[in-house]
Amino acid sequence: MNHAADEPLRGTLYVVATPIGNLADMSQRAIAVLSGVDRIAAEDTRRTAKLLRHYAIQTPMLALHEHNERDLAARLIAQMAQGENLALVADAGTPLISDPGYHLVRLARAAGLNVVAVPGPSALVAALSVSGLATDHFVFEGFLPSRQAARKARLEALRGEQRTLIFYEASHRVLECLKDMQVAFGLERQAVVARELTKQFETVRADTLQALSHWVEDDPQQQKGEFVLLVAGDSGVATHSVHVEAERVLSLLLDELPIKTAAKVAARITGVNKRALYERALGLKRDPQ
Ligand code: SAM
After folding, report:
1. Rounded to whole angstroms, how far apart are CA atoms 126 and 131?
2. Of the candidates 24, 159, 169, 276, which lies 20 to 30 Å from 282 by C-alpha distance?
3. What confidence tens digit (pLDDT) does each residue in 170-197 have?
4. By alpha-carbon position, which residue is closest to atom 8 of ligand 1?
5. Rounded-to-10 torsion of CA 97, 103, 105, 109
6. Are both 33 and 46 inside the same structural domain?
7. Which letter does DSSP use for residue 223 in this model?
8. Separation of 231 CA from ligand 1 center, angstroms?
9. pLDDT digit string (tens) for 20-57?
10. How far is the CA of 194 from the centre of ligand 1 (A)?
């Protein structure tokens, strides 16, 4: 059956992508499916109500969000098993991508129901497609932990990742996050800040992590809105040259400063991890070259 037909399949869960800012990005198929299903499960019914009003869609809604999804999913599955068809939407973009819906989709599939994608916008793909970074292999990391220690540890674990890295970040943490990225990946690693995609103040800027941090820090306008941060994968070569330079800086500082301070200052200058520099400093003291 052609799923694009106006008549929805009975007992089906439609996972429907909606715009990430620009309402004109709504697909005709999304409009047809949302108009034709029995109910729409929306993350925030007030937000989705605006979208529905814009397209004169009168389908009833129910709220499905991270706090009630587990409880609600089983009930919705039972209703779909009776023939009801349901569309799932997020506030913006593709449901389940850093948004609720995973439990519902998993249960629906386990129950043998039809689960049909109505694809459309997603901030991560939009950002990647215009980033100029490698697109053949990439890793979507979603949101980093909000606590700094956990965020730094996560970034540290990604230091040698060779695929393009994609992160979502809240506006009030963008600057902090870029600074932590400098420490984990080095000042010179290429990155992209993609802000307010498809909206009035859309800005996509590519530069080194250091230059991007300065740019965001110097212009409070660049700290507003919604962000995708992308970081080039580790090329091996760049890391090698950064580490060679870090070692040179470290040896100079070791002539003048105690080990701990030298490692700390070298880390600040080069963006290389402090602990790694401290260990290298111990090695250099033990075994000067
Ligand atoms: N499901 C959505 C998707 O498919 O992109 C993502 C939902 S997640 C809760 C929201 C995050 O996505 C925002 O904090 C931001 O990082 C990113 N985002 C959403 N819309 C965006 C836009 N127009 N421009 C840049 N980033 C956006």
Report:
1. 9
2. 159
3. 999 999 999 999 999 999 999 999 999 9
4. 98
5. 140
6. yes
7. G
8. 17
9. 999 999 999 999 999 999 999 999 999 999 999 999 99
10. 10
